[in-house]
Design goal:
The complex is a heterodimer of chains A (470) and B (438). Chain A has 470 residues and is α+β, with helices and mostly antiparallel strands. Chain A contains 10 helices and 22 strands. In chain A, helix 1 packs parallel to helix 2 and helix 3 runs parallel beside helix 5. The N and C termini of chain A lie far apart (59 Å). The mean pLDDT of chain A is 94. Chain B is α+β, with helices and mostly antiparallel strands and 438 residues long. Chain B contains 9 helices and 20 strands. The relative contact order of chain B is 0.13. Classes of the chains: A alpha+beta (470), B alpha+beta (438).
């Protein structure tokens, strides 16, 4: 746990007084303090290319009145700096007459350990594994022309001080191990990427040569792509594999269910609460309480304990994801979804681990039911236009389906669909729900936060595949 | 106020001396300070104010051919001492890399050109609010507009780049950005679009009125879009999308992608990769240019590069490390391009729209569909169907796809280049791409 006041001329008592004075006529607000340490070690082109370490310290001071948010942040935790921030907030909100909401739920549950993954393994140990990864992959296949592998680790300590001195703290570990392989055969180049990660120590992912599984998977994807043919263009049936392809749910539906877009009525879902928005059998939740998962949080960045929020239950829209501001304005409660990338950013309602739950069918049944379509196993990034509801994502491993059988792999193509209607096109939900390997970062308003996704195999009746073969 | 040169130089020289004392053979340091103030409006009311005061230091230490780096936003001496000590320890334990080095001394910038990149004007919050009120009124003029958001940001930055070869330079920059986002709705659809203005100098930004009107116009015309069938059709890219294709070209000729063999433009120097009418420049000394700089992120002086001449690739974008790997000298492009642009084409926009009986005019793309290893391109797109030079109706939920190797050979540019961003393109037509729709 960090003591933010240890080396500062600002005492905790001073800080509490400034906070209470600044926020006395506001509806909400807090001082958010953050100390994070992170490292990154990259092997690339046969060499350790970079070893870097970052230490970040600062505060963000927020005052909320009605719909207005005033925010000021600085790297310098000092009396002067906090007073200057306080003056900034007061000048924006000079005529407010709010009543501060002191209530914040408390919980003792923790979803990860208070560890610093960076110091649990020496630099030499990490360098050694990266070199082994490089050797292993290059020995395994003569077509391997490039290997990039990296470790990144982080420990972030936060403290939230609310008006009246209520204090909440959390210490969050996060690691990621990633391997990218490029193959070249007959002048053609293709890549495969795979990674794992979560809120625990490196060893949880590396024990008993587990790193080899990550390498094998990256190599397998690259090998598949080396044999791929141009993708078809046009509307067709799409079977999505389990796990990471749930990024579709995240882009197509998740963002549209975030409280801010619905309060502002800019989401295509804003007037659909209680309505049928998905096929029967489709249940989607957003869960911050899974142990050690990348998207899990003990408390969110406003101090609210996270929860398992049911978004869509058996096809019916049940809840939006809320932070305190949007919850208050929409007369509901925070779902513990208030997040920020770091102290430089304001809180927004965000996803944590977004999951579609299992149904009854098998993947086999889905494939067999398709005359012409594609089977998408893995994706790169996706994006959504919240207002029109249109979303895309890019296949990184996909196959054509012809007459109920999986055919040749196809080149990376973009799939495009319509968020509000896509879930009504889901005609089968598999019995094989799987969590993603722990690699997702979600971007919104220039802020990236770690997230998770999960889903079973699903069959979508109609999507547009953006290939080049007419 | 942002920290002055003296403060930043003192921090840099403290770090430099300490790193050398602890055993670094070479050191490079960047110390930066920036202050950014934003006011946001939504539906004609104040929504958010945000003040951001940033300090940061980035240090790389070398011991022979070993290198490691640290960064921190905590510039207190105690913390710097701990970090530099840690950086030296890490450097000792990091394997050697023969290409690690500071830039060649003779390539370092000797002077900072006066490029007029800093405007000292400070816009008080009340004046930002005034600007946004006018903007929001102008953006709310049409009944179909159901939501408006706008924002004004003033940014001031200063930095010092120093290294153990005696380089120690930096300069101030400023930017003023205003943006307007509108959401329009009719019976069948809801659409969003935007307009923004970004300049180094306050006097150069667009008027609030003009900006709001442009956002409304961009948004309303998107209402009630149709999907079209899958076919091969000429694509015309609006300038704001065309510049993205130019940025993808820039990443494909970065020395890091070339040296790693992960670019479809590897080994293409001297070859014709674009149609012969195409010229591409990267010009770092444009007065008030948004990408202007006297030296790159390693201190290497920057000069104008004619990257593509009559369709032929002439240069990669080279930094010190990857330059050594490729046996080429840095051309001052560590950290990327400066002011990158396609030279104007010969044909008026009107004639470009008229050059085919049917084409698609693309105003927005979504998704990360550019693969610089294979050159494959596939993105979601929004735009308009153009028939006989006229905009017929909006289009959405389609994808456009092709391969850059073919796309580059089939580019026709209009003569409407403007310097609105750091990367700029005239309106661009590419023939031979595939649209996937119904």
């Amino acid at each position: 746990m960090s003591d933010f006041f240890e080396k500062s001329d600002l005492s905790r008592n001073d800080a509490e007084n400034i906070i209470s004075d600044t926020l006395k006529k506001c509806d909400d607000g807090e001082l958010y303090l953050e100390n994070s340490k992170s490292e990154s070690i990259i092997l690339d082109d046969n060499k350790i290319k970079n070893s870097s370490y970052n230490s970040d310290l600062g505060f963000g001071f927020r005052a909320v009145s009605g719909e207005v948010v005033a925010y000021s942040h600085s790297n310098e935790i000092s009396k002067n700096s906090l007073i200057q921030s306080s003056n900034n907030l007061k000048s924006t909100l000079n005529s407010t007459k709010g009543t501060y909401n002191h209530f914040i739920p408390k919980s003792n549950k923790k979803y990860y350990d208070n560890i610093n993954p960076i110091i649990q393994k020496t630099l030499n140990e990490k360098v050694e594994i990266l070199n082994e990864v490089n050797k292993y992959l290059r020995a395994k296949d003569d077509n391997v022309k490039q290997v990039t592998a990296n470790f990144s680790g982080e420990q972030k300590s936060i403290e939230i001080i609310r008006s009246g001195g209520d204090t909440l703290t959390d210490t969050r570990p996060l690691i990621r191990f990633n391997v990218s392989v490029m193959l070249e055969k007959n002048g053609r180049k293709e890549t495969g990427v795979y990674g794992v990660g979560g809120r625990q120590s490196y060893d949880a992912y590396l024990k008993e040569d587990n790193w080899k599984n990550v390498c094998d998977e990256a190599l397998r994807i690259a090998s598949v792509n080396l044999e791929s043919k141009p993708a078809p263009a046009g509307e067709m049936k799409v079977v999505l594999g389990p796990g990471w392809p749930a990024i579709l749910i995240h882009e197509a539906v998740g963002h549209g269910l975030e409280g801010d877009f619905n309060r502002k009525k800019t989401s295509a879902f804003h007037n659909l609460m209680g309505e049928k928005v998905a096929s029967e059998g489709v249940t989607i939740i957003d869960d911050g309480t899974l142990d050690n998962r990348r998207g899990s949080l003990t408390i969110d960045d406003e101090g609210t304990p996270t929860e398992k929020t049911v978004l869509i239950e058996n096809g019916i829209l049940k809840n939006f994801m809320q932070d305190r501001l949007n919850a208050r304005l929409m007369k509901t409660k925070s779902t513990g979804s208030g997040r920020r990338e770091n102290f430089r950013h304001i809180v927004l309602p965000r996803m944590r681990n977004t999951m579609m739950l299992s149904g009854k069918q098998t993947q086999d049944e889905m494939i067999k039911s398709v005359d012409k379509g594609i089977f998408a196993v893995s994706f790169g990034g996706g994006q959504v236009d919240i207002t029109s509801g249109k979303f895309v994502f890019n296949c990184t491993e996909a196959y054509e389906i012809i007459n109920g059988k999986i055919g040749s792999p196809i080149k990376g193509a973009t799939l495009i669909g319509d968020g509000p209607s896509i879930l009504k096109e889901v005609s089968m939900v598999g019995n094989d729900m799987m969590l993603d390997p722990g690699i997702g970062t979600c971007g919104k308003a220039g802020q990236g936060v770690p997230v998770g996704v999960a889903q079973p195999s699903i069959l979508i009746n109609k999507m547009t595949v953006g290939g080049t073969k007419l | 106020m942002v920290k002055d040169q003296e403060y930043l130089e003192n921090k840099a020289s403290y770090c430099l001396d300490l790193a050398k004392k602890l055993g670094a053979t070479e050191v490079s340091i960047n110390v930066g300070s920036s202050i950014s103030e934003t006011v946001n409006f939504r539906n004609k009311k104040l929504d958010e104010s945000n003040r951001s005061d940033n300090l940061g230091v980035y240090i790389s230490t070398y011991i022979g051919k070993k290198k490691s780096s640290i960064s921190s936003s905590n510039l207190l001496q105690d913390n710097l001492n701990i970090l530099i000590e840690k950086c030296i320890e890490t450097t000792k334990n990091t394997p050697e890399d023969e290409f690690n080095a500071l830039p060649d001394k003779d390539l370092l910038a000797q002077e900072i050109k006066e490029l007029n990149l800093y405007d000292d004007t400070h816009i008080e919050n009340d004046d930002k609010i005034k600007y946004l009120s006018i903007l929001e009124n102008s953006a709310s003029g049409d009944k179909k507009i159901i939501n408006t958001e706008s924002s004004f940001t003033e940014d001031k930055s200063n930095f010092i780049l120093a290294n153990s070869d005696g380089f120690c330079k930096g300069f101030k920059t400023s930017s003023f950005v205003a943006s307007s986002v509108a959401v329009a709705k009719d019976d069948k659809s809801m659409e969003r679009d935007y307009e923004y203005t970004l300049k180094c100098h306050y006097d150069d930004i667009k008027s609030a009125e003009e900006l709001g009107k442009a956002a409304v116009k961009n948004t309303i015309r998107k209402l009630n879009p149709k999907k079209i069938g899958s076919e091969k059709i000429p694509i015309i890219f609006d300038k704001r999308i065309a510049k993205g294709i130019l940025s993808t070209f820039a990443s494909a000729i970065s020395s890091s992608a070339i040296s790693r063999g992960t670019s479809f433009l590897k080994d293409m120097i001297g070859k014709k990769i674009f149609s012969s009418s195409i010229n591409i420049y990267d010009k770092p000394d444009i007065i008030k240019g948004l990408g202007s700089k006297s030296f790159d992120s390693e201190g290497v002086k920057t000069e104008t590069l004619n990257l593509v001449e009559h369709g032929i690739l002439k240069h990669y974008l080279i930094d010190t490390y990857n330059g050594k790997k490729l046996n080429l000298k840095s051309n001052g492009r560590s950290g990327g391009t400066s002011n990158l642009y396609f030279d104007n084409g010969k044909i008026a926009l009107k004639n470009l729209l008229n050059s085919n009986s049917k084409s698609l005019y693309i105003t927005e793309t979504i998704g990360h569909g550019s693969n610089i290893i294979t050159g494959d391109y596939s993105v979601g797109a929004t735009g308009f169907l153009v028939e006989d030079g006229e905009f017929k109706h909006p289009i959405n939920e389609i994808t456009i796809a092709g391969n850059f190797k073919d796309m580059f050979q089939n580019i026709t540019l209009a003569n409407d280049l403007e310097f609105e961003y750091s990367t700029n393109s005239p309106t661009m037509m590419i023939e031979g791409m595939v649209v996937a729709g119904k």
